[in-house]
Amino acid sequence: MGTKPASETEIKLTEKRLGIEFPADFKEFLSLTNGFSAPNDIEPTFEPTDNIDYLKNVDSHIIEAYSIDGIENIGKELEKSILVGGINEEQYFLLIPSDLKREKWKYWKFANWYPGEEEHENLESYFNDVLEFINEQLETE
């Protein structure tokens, strides 16, 4: 599908390094492909397990930019987010761990040129939206 699958050991080592346990759908995704090229010029490339890290370790400036009055709630989410896609690209795909207030992980596509985050219910919902967009583009050509 993209690259060779991540092994269970690679996934567990990444989780241990980050101090979290990924949601089941993301672990399943990694078990299918350890990295995935963007299907178009708009979507982020999903990173292999070796590149996955907290956004604050990769791009702390974006967290600072979104931690100002009025949008500080976005900055707080970015502070704890895990960057799984889009390193050195125009937009990121982020996983935001659950916390005491909510049990579910958040799935965000995030870019500075797009005002705010684009939240998805889960990984499947994101890829369904991407597929729908690609089909719409093909129909207009």
Structure description:
This is Knr4/Smi1-like domain-containing protein. Residues 5-129 form the Knr4/Smi1-like domain. InterPro entries: Knr4/Smi1-like_dom (IPR018958), Knr4/Smi1-like_sf (IPR037883). By secondary structure, the protein is an alpha+beta fold. The chain has one domain. 40% of the residues lie in helices and 16% in strands. The protein is built from six helices and five strands, in the order ααβαααββββα. It has helices spanning 8-18, 24-32, 55-58, 60-65, 72-79, 123-140, and strands spanning 53-54, 82-85, 91-96, 106-111, 117-120. The protein has a five-stranded antiparallel sheet with strand order 1-2-3-4-5. It is globular. The model has no long low-confidence stretch (mean pLDDT 90).
In short:
The chain has one domain (8-140). It contains 6 helices and 5 strands; from the N terminus they run H-H-E-H-H-H-E-E-E-E-H. It has helices at 8-18, 24-32, 55-58, 60-65, 72-79, 123-140, and strands at residues 53-54, 82-85, 91-96, 106-111, 117-120.
Could you tell me how far the N terminus lies from the C terminus, measured between alpha carbons in angstroms?
26 Å
Biggest β-sheet description: 5 strands, antiparallel
Number of distinct beta strands:
5
DSSP helical segment count: 6
Unreliable sequence segments: none
Radius of gyration: 15 Å
Q: Globular, elongated, flat, extended or rod-shaped: what is the shape?
A: globular
Oligomer: single chain
**Helical percent range?**
25-40%
Tell me the structural class.
alpha+beta
The largest sheet has its strands arranged as: 1-2-3-4-5
Mean pLDDT: 90
> Helices and strands, in N-to-C order?
HHEHHHEEEEH
